[in-house]
Amino acid sequence: MKLYQYIFTFLMGYFLYAFVEVAGRGYTHWTMCLTGGLVLTVIYIISSRPAMTLIRCCIIGAVFITAIEFAVGIFDNIIMGWHVWDYSELPLNFMGQICPIFSLLWGFLCIPAFYLCRYIRERFGNSSDCRS
Fold first, then answer.
1. Is residue 38 part of a domain?
2. What average pLDDT score do residues 24-31 get?
């Protein structure tokens, strides 16, 4: 894989996440756009592994996204005090930064991300890396 593929994938994640969040709740935060770019790039990398199935990608993706969400939440919400999100009212939340409901949502969002990454690889001529 080439650097430009990673840059393209990062930018896709950056702008798609911003679009989804603005469409869903009316606003976003610049750190969430960066996080969206990072997440899609990681899904791009893990989804190209030979043994990676859609289900595995969703499970690994959900765990990774939840971990990144926690790290970004600690920085954004606790250290910087930006109050980007707060899951304190949701059941089984941890420090108001992560919760099982959103972890499940991240797993489901890995489905279109998996196929988007596959499409990106095909467009860049790496279709032999794609798995179903």
1. yes
2. 95
Q: Which domain holds residue 60?
A: 3-124
Q: How many domains does the chain have?
A: 1
Got the DSSP string for 27-73? ---HHHHHHHHHHHHHHHHHHTSTT--HHHHHHHHHHHHHHHHHHHH
Residue 92 lies in a domain: yes
Lookup: tokens for 97: 């930064």
Cα distance between residue 100 and residue 24, in whole Å: 19
Beta bridge pairs of residue 78? none
Q: Is residue 129 part of a domain?
A: no
- Cα 122-17-127 angle, rounded to 5 deg: 10
- Tell me the per-residue pLDDT of 74-113, one tens digit each, with 9 for 90 and over: 999 999 999 999 999 999 999 999 999 999 999 999 999 9
